[in-house]
């Protein structure tokens, strides 16, 4: 069995070719797609966060709205760039969204990806301390966030409060019990996967990672997952971690599918550079008739190793078509692989 959800980047474009032409469209259609996915039996609705872009950016209003409109489906991010975040304010927002959703939040966070602007986090008021990097700052913000959502009091109460306080030091409110175990780290390397395991975070591994061995993407990703699980065991945590991978997967079951994805040429991994010193490998996409797709996916070692699969969806093709994409995987592919 495997948890299957969708991952939307929430792109919008005023072009007539897009069915998502404004930020309002992207947000409202995201809610509608989550509702549709829940009705179809999918397990998760996840959203990417990109700043300074025509994409989804501020996750917590969206997560709260989805939580209010759904009752079962997991609701998450993949991922929030922690370089931009005030950890305490984020803890308040996350706690509120999780309570609205009834404890269904699965919050993916990370160091972030290449940006639309140069050092965009500086415009948000954050700058790495002298001698440290933006990645160090993201991990520092994460450590503070994780400590705060543990729920322990740390703030000295006023001797003359406006309202009565409970005894002892105060914590950030609202507090949502169990949220700490539903934090995921988006790891781009084996080392950051190990770092996440040591801190008791679940693992998110996307469609790209640092090219560390020259092997096929799915092989490197499977080894990253094993390194994470080994580190988790060594850390002595008292629960089983979760691991997700993201993939672009399209079952060609009608003429629309064949028109959109039948002639795709990205069936091989690609190599690129995230910056001047970081060589990355980008995983292939899958688009085929269901019987062919089942055999191809059997060979993906990372999908086999993960308990959660996030299907990246082309959100600008509209809610109805994206619901069809999700349904085709759930109906025509997942049972053949033993996922349903």
Automatic annotation (TrEMBL):
Keyword Oxidoreductase appears in the UniProt entry: yes
GO molecular function list: oxidoreductase activity
Coiled coil regions, renumbered to chain: none
Keyword Manganese: no
Gene3D superfamilies tied to this protein: Luciferase-like domain
InterPro entries: Bact_Lucif_Oxidored, Luciferase-like_dom, Luciferase-like_sf
EC identifiers of the protein: 1.-.-.-
Keyword vocabulary terms for this entry: Oxidoreductase
Domain Luciferase-like: 6-260
Highest taxon listed in the record's lineage: Bacteria
Descriptive protein name: LLM class flavin-dependent oxidoreductase
